[in-house]
Design a protein that fits this description.
Elements: H1 25-39, H2 42-69, H3 71-74, E1 82-84, H4 94-100, E2 112-118, H5 122-132, E3 138-144, H6 156-159, E4 171-176, H7 186-204, E5 211-214, E6 219-221, H8 223-231, E7 238-241, E8 243-247, E9 253-258, E10 262-265, E11 281-283, E12 287-291, H9 297-306, H10 321-330, H11 344-349, H12 365-369
Parallel strand pairs: 1-11, 2-3, 2-5, 3-4, 7-11, 8-12
Antiparallel strand pairs: 5-10, 6-12, 7-10, 8-9
InterPro entries: Glyco_trans_17
Protein name: Acetylglucosaminyltransferase
Organism: Solanum tuberosum (Potato)
């Protein structure tokens, strides 16, 4: 105290100086909080209380969409394929068809091995093998007692083997136990099973220059494509197949190409069974890829949890049967994802449900031979059985 002024050691408050000098610490703290809020701009307060939480929730719910939409900023498109024009007509001799491709016709056709890893796609496997049957030397199938994600599963092919008596004399079948490593990247288990398939191929008797079809069960080369490649000389050692791409059935055709299926001229010690890009060459219009083309809703749920991209099931309601049925009939995305494209133009242009197609021209012939059995795969029949 000097010259009539009161001195205090407490720090003064520039916003609310009247708070200072309060006796109770609790009262002092609450008062300071009120003063701080009084000093904030109203717009800033609304932003903090409303928009920041909304941003956090939105990023959680739609973070995957944001990442896919911004894909052109962080990932460049892959090197384009060298497209090989595909010539075919049922009334033109094979010698002339080979020459149209720039190849010579062989004196006798190559042997052809069709090798697949099998999970539960019984209908698609039968459609595939009925399509390819006339030209396949050996059908090779491997199945495991677990999925790529480590979920236990039945040996579904063994349980349905009676449906495939027509290929029994030409079948090399094997099964293996899964590695049972929970939480591991599913692609490790997938790679393990593909190595086992390599071993099964050797046991099946594959030799140098035999043709080997590498594709998933639902990636079906058309029969005349395989007949062309087995009869023509000088074809590339590895040739990818451009397949028409469908989702849920042959009613919903996707714009972007399916290219992972491939045909190899087998080379001992070099050829390895894989499902990624292995060549720059691709043959146009060589078959069909029908992804998630299941009869039963339960099969949709199983695959969503079982295959290598199971991390896309970000919320439990994605597996709701009613939702899945609604998504199928709309031609929408099971995972509520944006298109996997490399330019903003393609992403925006392909957003939304897939347009319905009412064309059933040039599909696997076995569908038309058994329309009642496979009605769910034809246009206009989106309803699925519960299973």
């Amino acid at each position: 105290m000097s010259d009539g002024y009161y001195y205090t050691s407490k720090k003064s408050d520039d916003i609310c100086p009247d708070v200072c000098g309060q006796d109770s610490p609790t009262t002092l703290s609450m008062s300071r909080l009120r003063c701080m809020l009084r000093g904030l701009d109203l717009k800033a307060l609304i932003f903090l209380v409303v928009f920041v939480p909304m941003f956090i929730v939105g990023a959680y719910l739609h973070g995957q969409k944001i990442t896919y939409f911004l894909r052109p900023l962080w990932q460049s498109p892959p090197k384009p394929f060298i497209e090989i024009t595909h010539y075919y007509h049922e009334n033109v001799p094979m010698e002339d068809i080979c020459k149209l491709h720039g190849w010579e016709v062989r004196e006798y056709p190559r042997r052809v091995f069709d090798a697949v890893l099998f999970s539960n796609e019984v209908d698609m496997l039968k459609i595939r093998w009925k399509e390819l049957y006339p030209y396949i030397t050996q059908f090779v199938l491997l199945e495991s007692n677990s999925t790529f994600t480590g979920l236990p599963k039945l040996h579904n092919f063994a349980l349905n083997r009676d449906q495939f008596k027509f290929i029994e004399p030409r079948l090399a079948y094997g099964n293996i136990a899964g590695r049972d490593k929970k939480g591991e990247n599913p692609f490790f288990e997938e790679a393990y099973q593909r190595v086992a398939l390599d071993q099964l191929l050797r046991l099946a008797g594959i030799e140098d220059d035999d043709l080997l079809i590498m594709s998933d069960v639902d990636e079906i080369p058309n029969a005349h494509t395989i007949n062309l490649l087995r009869w023509c000389d000088d074809i590339p050692h590895v040739l990818h197949l451009h397949l028409k791409n469908y989702l849920y059935s042959f009613e919903f055709q996707i714009k972007h190409r399916s290219w992972r299926a491939s045909v190899h001229r087998y080379q001992s010690g070099k050829t390895r069974y894989a499902h990624y890009r292995q060549s720059d060459y691709i043959l146009a219009d060589a078959g069909w890829h029908c992804s998630f083309c299941f009869r039963h809703i339960s099969d949709f749920i199983f695959k969503m949890k079982a295959y290598s991209h199971s991390d896309r099931v970000r919320f439990s309601h994605y597996l709701n049967p009613t939702r899945i049925q609604d998504v199928i009939c709309k031609g929408a995305d099971l995972y509520d994802m944006l298109p996997e494209e490399y330019t903003f133009k393609d992403i925006i242009g392909n957003m939304g449900p897939i347009p319905h197609s009412y064309s059933a021209i040039d599909l696997p012939s076995y569908l038309f031979e058994n329309p009642d059995k496979y009605k769910y795969l034809l246009p206009g029949n989106c309803k699925r059985e519960n299973g």
